[in-house]
Amino acid sequence: MKSSMVKYKIFTLLALSILLYWFVAPAVLTHNVVELVKAGKEDRIPDISYGVWNYYQKGQYVSPNTPKDAVGDLKKMIEEDADLVWSLHQYGMWVMVRHFGKASQN
Q: Once rounded to an integer, what is the mean pLDDT over residues 34-39?
């Protein structure tokens, strides 16, 4: 009985950490970034949001209209008036495919 309690606690902590790292942290730390940029209020974006955005956008879809030097850098994307695409579910799916293998192509 005790070993099953230990197992479920370990798996619960693992699930919680995955949820926090892959979904909650980027959602909270980049909240309203796109809306603030669209409203012209870039000065209200917290400094931590730039780093978090750049980290979580690695390997994500980038509009083909985005200048190549601005890809992966939020400040440059704002300066170049590039298309900002932030989709949390895309990031989660990208992580799952990257870590657990590519989906089969039939």
A: 88
The DSSP secondary-structure symbol of 68 reads G
In a domain, 88, yes or no: yes
Rounded to whole angstroms, the Cα distance separating 6 from 12 reads: 10
More confident residue, 83 or 23: 23
Give the total number of structural domains in the chain.
1
Q: Which long-range contacts (CB under 8 A, 24 or more apart) does 93-97 make?
A: 94/59, 94/60, 95/22
- Could you tell me the residue range of the domain that residue 23 belongs to? 2-100
* Structure-token pair, residue 58: 């690695």
Number of alpha helices (DSSP H) and beta strands (DSSP E) in the chain: 6, 0
Average pLDDT over residues 68-95: 74
Does residue 106 fall inside a structural domain?
no
* Global confidence as pTM: 0.67
